User: Fold this.
Amino acid sequence: MSALDGLYQQLILDHSKKRFGDGLLEHHDAQHFERNPSCGDEITLQLALEPGTDTVAALGWTGAGCSISMASASVLSEMAPGMSVDELRALIGEFREMLRSRGAGEPDDEVLGDAVAFHGVSKFVMRIKCAMLAWVATEACLLEVRPAA
Amino acid sequence: MSALTDAEVLRLRSDFPALAAEVNGQPLAYLDSAATAQRPASVLDAEREFLLTSNAAVHRGAHTLAGLATEAFEDARATLADFLGADPDEIVWTSNATDALNLVAYAIGNASRGRGGEAARRFALSAGDEILVTEAEHHANLIPWQELAAATGATLRFIPVDDAGIYTLADAAAALTERTRIVAIGHVSNVTGFVAPVAEIAALAHERGALVVLDACQSAPHRRLNVAELGVDFLALSGHKMLGPSGIGVLWGRAELLNALPPFRTGGSMISTVTMTEASYLPAPQRFEAGTQPVSQAVALAEAVRYLDSVGLERIDARENELAQRMLAGLALIDGIRVVGPAAGVPRAGLVSFDVDGVHAHDVGQYLDAQGIAVRVGHHCAQPLHRRLGLTATTRASAYVYTTTEEVDRFLAAVALVRPYFGVTATTTTGAQA
Ligand SMILES: Cc1ncc(COP(=O)(O)O)c(C=O)c1O
Assistant:
């Protein structure tokens, strides 16, 4: 597989077109706007918890950007519901580690699920911010609903 | 003047060592010269030679090397003055065009605060005065004026652009008023390749007593400039876009204006007398060159200008227009491409920006990069223009003196494969804009 095909895995291309979580929520517990000033990609992301629990009910978002940023928002929105705040934080941490790996190692798909498709991004330093956009916004939402201890 | 030929371009490419690179297993096709140009070996050598034989602080010491360095520095100034049809005392070294534009804006801000005494009163702005820019400006020729307006109470107005991102002389005339004091425009747009009718706008502005500031960043590298013919009052350029080093730029200003303008930055090398409470300033250009200057960069920029002169700017300009027309014609044949800027056939700069329907510019750029083709993607420091065009980002291919026809054709062939690669088939736009 060429490096380019490694970047644009089919799963990413699919998610960039059929976007999971695209659209704002009716009720949300936190909202965050994140923008990548160098390229103009942006996202407004909302997070809702199951009432009275620590469980993520849904992520909803609107944004504009490249296929990597839009697909990563979509994948995250598909994965997050049902996770606890701590689990989602841990997932975001793992995802960031993978993106910083510069292509080294094999990501753990037990932990990362479909997000392993973004492993190829780690070889393209200029695109890591694209992949992180929604994830950074989600991290900020988590801090808002459950400040870190 | 006849355009530079393919054979000549192929020959002069060997002057540019960086162009021999391979990128992702492909020969580099460097189509991002509007961002920064590659440098000929003679420019690299000139800088090195200066540092090996003549490096010293300029205008400060009395030893032999200090003399050699000062001479080289001032010779470089004279070379740039010749290049622009100006006087050496009108050439102020800056770190880049952004710095040059800020210098003018902040010096006028200082004049507006009463600095510079009687001579500087002519520059002072106050509430009700107007600064006029265009909607297509690079942020470097927009934000300094926003700041100046905010600092003085003046109003910032703009000449609007049309759906292609361009404007006419009539649009400019309509935006000028009796209160217009400064007109700050780009000569060649770094997004659309549009060439502004500078002399005509300057004449209209002067009828109203306004000063004209020209951002020549994208014109100085590619066309013959003469400040008298342009009829402007200030002009800014960057070395790194015209085969020279980064860290050096030029502000040209009419001598009588520069000598009436208070300084922007203050410190060493720009004063005549200093007491513990105040200082008096040297005339231009030293007044605006506080602190240690980019000396080896100035020397190398002069070498870059000699290189451009030896090839001939008229021939470079004609060649780049041909390459731009080739790009436009090729892009018009590809489904889903929207080109911004002047229509095919209109003389323009050698750069083309476009949107690919269904594929974000970053993905377009990534695809091209995998083929060794370097283009610029994003808003190109012109967010208001992109907003006006209804786009967040475009892909820009830009040519220079060393760009081959084959590189343009490789670029076109690769662009044709972008939408298929990303699985986009539905077409909402076809061909170039009318
Ligand atoms: C039209 C225009 N103006 C100003 C600039 C700023 O140049 P620099 O960053 O070298 O100061 C650029 C460069 O991107 C430009 O294209």
